[in-house]
From TrEMBL, chains A, B:
Name of the protein this chain belongs to: Amidase
Gene3D superfamilies in the record: Amidase signature (AS) domain
Domain of life according to the entry: Bacteria
One term of GO molecular function: catalytic activity
Pfam families: Amidase
Domain Amidase: from-to ranges: 28-420
Amino acid sequence: MKTTDSLSSLGLRRALQGIEEGLYTALDIINACFDQLERREPVVKAWQCRLNREEYLAQYTKYQSFYEQSILKGLPVGIKDIIDTANMPTEMGSAIHKGRQPVDDAACVSQIRQAGGIVLGKTVTTEFAYFKPGDTCNPKDLLRTPGGSSSGSAAAVADSMVPVALGSQTAASVIRPAAYCGAVGYVASRGDFSLRGIQPLAQSLDSLGLLARSVEDIELMRGILLKQPSPLDLPAAQKPTKVVVCDGAAIGDVDGAMQAAIQSTVLELRRHGVDIIEMSAQSSGLLKELVDHHQCIMAYEVCRNLVQEAAQPELLSEPLIDLIDRGVAISYDDYLAARQQAEKIREQLWAEYADCDLMLAPAAPGVAPLGIDKTGAPHMSRPWQAMNLPVITLPGHVFEGNLPLGVQLVGRLNEDQSLLRLARWVEGVLPR
Amino acid sequence: MKTTDSLSSLGLRRALQGIEEGLYTALDIINACFDQLERREPVVKAWQCRLNREEYLAQYTKYQSFYEQSILKGLPVGIKDIIDTANMPTEMGSAIHKGRQPVDDAACVSQIRQAGGIVLGKTVTTEFAYFKPGDTCNPKDLLRTPGGSSSGSAAAVADSMVPVALGSQTAASVIRPAAYCGAVGYVASRGDFSLRGIQPLAQSLDSLGLLARSVEDIELMRGILLKQPSPLDLPAAQKPTKVVVCDGAAIGDVDGAMQAAIQSTVLELRRHGVDIIEMSAQSSGLLKELVDHHQCIMAYEVCRNLVQEAAQPELLSEPLIDLIDRGVAISYDDYLAARQQAEKIREQLWAEYADCDLMLAPAAPGVAPLGIDKTGAPHMSRPWQAMNLPVITLPGHVFEGNLPLGVQLVGRLNEDQSLLRLARWVEGVLPR
């Protein structure tokens, strides 16, 4: 048996293989995760609500034969606290919903439970998955933000408390915390996963996301969520032939560290014979437009989703009230124009780069900023999210000694499987 | 003051105007609705759960000054029982969810409450808005189905128990019951309304719908749900210039009554100078393809939404189990191809009829079939729903003495406002 430390940091698929091979038991992994969690949670504060070790082990033992025959073997999963769970409150980071106990599991939670995953707990989210942070700290530097809104999921995974967690993204809520904490963060093409039981923020933009420590674990969880016949089957990684690089400058500020992360990724890709082209000024201009379209769509829809909450402004943060006020003032015609433009640009952009396999772009403006009262700027994700494209953060770069930073790969709509195979190849050439 | 009878059958907007003009009070309307409801509900069985008159009046009285200043003046609204309400159970027509009490209102329910509507109750739905009917009878002939899945909403509105009700449509769940009961049924372009708190069946197809007794009441409710600044403003009706007619034969069986309803509508339109063309054989062929695409998308998504329910097959109907089994067997690639084809056909079809304002099509194969153990065939709606287009049932035709039958108008994606203005004009030339 390995030491506790290395067991908690094993990837999900590696852990399952080791259990299968008899190197250790699921209980060894579970206990290692709890060891890590109990040591670190007092300072990282990734969990809004969770099972303690005794409760977890009691559940495991009660259904042990089911877990032993299941895909996920009873290993722990974290669930962002805007996703309904029938056995734990779902508070959405809002005082309005303190103690709110849903009656049903979200469909994604049911899929995980049926596959033998155990919901260890609910991870901290910003208020309604928008801006106002919870208490979570960046596990790599406790003075810095973990990013948001999937703050707790990114921190818990990056800190090896759980191998995987569910997140969600409407603007930058998976990609950015993954980049700041040093996790792999994946956002599915919109519409691919069931969102039943996930609190909507903006229906044209909301996507379910996953956080893990490797691309192969993302692929496994995606297979489970999509009810694929053999989610453990791993297709071969695919080397990209040609990649278009977006430096992000047209979207907003990008600091030296992120520029270096992009350049270093480009060098590695080139070194392995991947053809690299730069995004044209015209295409970059379209990305800039998309930032505005994203903000318009989001504001319009948020105020039409958070209807009962908007009537209690004394319990909402200022930024959320601002967003709601902006949304109410947007006309249907302007909103629709933004949606239609975003769709048009998506087709235009990928048509221009029809011979490319991937886009490479910054996942955030730079490393996690100091302070946990803000979650960092979301603009680096707005264009891709407005186009509903699948995206993934790959970590690997480290600055200032121990601050992780991830870059973002962007795929074609609904070609998520291909994106993940390509991303797994790229992951292999990045520093670990 | 008018007699009770005519007060309950007043349209929503007419009732509000009369209250404004001092002809009667909101309480007169409310009491007239309860008179009608108490007389008819024992045989029509439109309600799954509801306030009784005393409870309703107590709520009205408690907040009377709010209601008096509100848009909807405290008038009653029916809510399909797959839409969450914080003060009443939401059982989705399923034994699995008997007594299920949601913690929050759906966003659409919050919008209605904030506009001064009172939720009179939850209307009967088929099991999870799919096939298995509840107890509701067609108010025009108690031996016949009201259609489904928005059975209770259509029956309650057509029978003048409430002026308006919310429904939803994934296949034919608003259009068909409206046609069978003699109500106006509208299904919004997918994505226009917030679906927060509405139980999803198939996310690529689900739309919120409205049932009322006139197009102008649909427009009013749509304005409220979209948070429009002046939902009471009524734009001028718009006469269509050119209409393309689909006889439905390529989609499936259409009986003599529906053929007559379409022909009579065409005659009225022609008589008023509207140019009419017939849908080409090629386009009709595309509609036939869409039926298959719709079934593929629906089965794939349903089994990935009803995850926890699928684990309790002993509490599900046979048709639903069949649907789930079919869905599990569909590959992601086949599913995606169906979605993409449906989108492509939508663009192709409306491009071919770019000079037309509307499509006219059967809303059902014919009048409501005898028996309440089935809800009639849904195929006449599958093509339009697969394309996510806005549609509306206009009643007016009557067969065999008293059996209503509606025809369907189809608009362009997201041009719902234009569809409704055109539909209001068409409504004016149809028999009443």
